[in-house]
Please model this.
Amino acid sequence: MRFVSTRNMEATPVTFPEALFRGLAPDGGLYHPVDEPDLRTVVRSLGADASFVDVAGAMIQGLFGEEYDAAAARALAQESFPFEPVLRPLEPGIDILELFHGPSCAFKDFGAGFLAATMEAELRRRGGRAVVLTATSGDTGSAVAQAFHGRDRIDVVILYPSGRVSPLQEQQLTTLGGNVLALEVNGSFDDCQRMVKEAFGDSEITAAVPLTSANSINVGRLIPQSFYYVWAFAQCKDEVEDELLFCVPSGNFGNLTAGVLAWRWGMAVAGFIAATNANDVIPEYLRTGVFTPRESIHTLANAMDVGNPSNFERLQQIFGGFVPATLLTGRGVDDAAIRATMADVYRSTGMIVCPHTATGIHAARQRRAEEPGSDMRIITLATAHPAKFVEVCEDALGVSPEIPSRLARLMERTKVALPVDRSAAALKKVLLERFSYST
Model:
């Protein structure tokens, strides 16, 4: 599988390891698959009895057969994913795909685990070091911190917006230490993301520091997220014909893009619903045909507080310009609806869901209400454990979710974060002073 920049599809393609470590293309675009593998036979061969490692191993070999034979692909899958998703019914026509059973209790553990395992293996093979530079609105940073912590050849620098992540998310980012450095930015997630992009475009930094990225802009994190769509599809494809949709809580749109890629490679589903919070730039685009990025606003579903989604470039590239409304629809959900959905789900099922998952459930319910007599089945991605949003749950439900032991231990640790201004110069100073080592 080869990759080119979304901003120059005529450029010379690069290999997967090259795209993995470069993160961004030299022209500032995102690496995007130039090849369209036909994996329909692979997807059809996977049934409800397939484990997640079975699915991931088959997909890794199907996509990267030149790098990994069947045994190597399965070994990589086992190292990357010592946890599995869970598919459970919520109500008639709507299922929940729980993606929070990994170490940081969020869906981003899947991409981060694969990225860390593949990067480490490649660095062992060729020698050298890497510095993972990433921005987070909450869950990305904690997943990256957990997946990369303790890696011998990799340092991690995580930028997060001060006061705009939950207390538990902040503990996950700032208490590991070692090879993980947390930078507390006086600004928004969009500021953090801009600073990261500018660092990758600064030749003085890239000449001295072996930067790579772990955001959803990195194909090494993006592609493995397609695996759980295929796994969920395999669980129910014999029960559903042409009426299966995925509803995806969306911020930077990497998760949704991964699902669309799985569709392009052979997963036969009817479509996708992009569920955003009040930062509804993509739903607005799907309604009007006009993409108008804007400053993000703070919401209950803070990990989706993104006003200029990076992966929009990839979605456009997949469809050659305009994203078709027949495959992808978008719905913005405000805080009042998020809070009400959390309360309703708890009353009706006893299940506590995080505000991001509630955003998806609300959008899925709206979609089903438009066709009340249909056989439509919607799988809504549950992107984070509710324990990561204790304060929001207490406010909406009057109860606290049970905190998994792997999260409870973090609350006893001391926060260590370096405050920085929201400027490219501030980040440059940190990188050059701390990570100018020979590769």
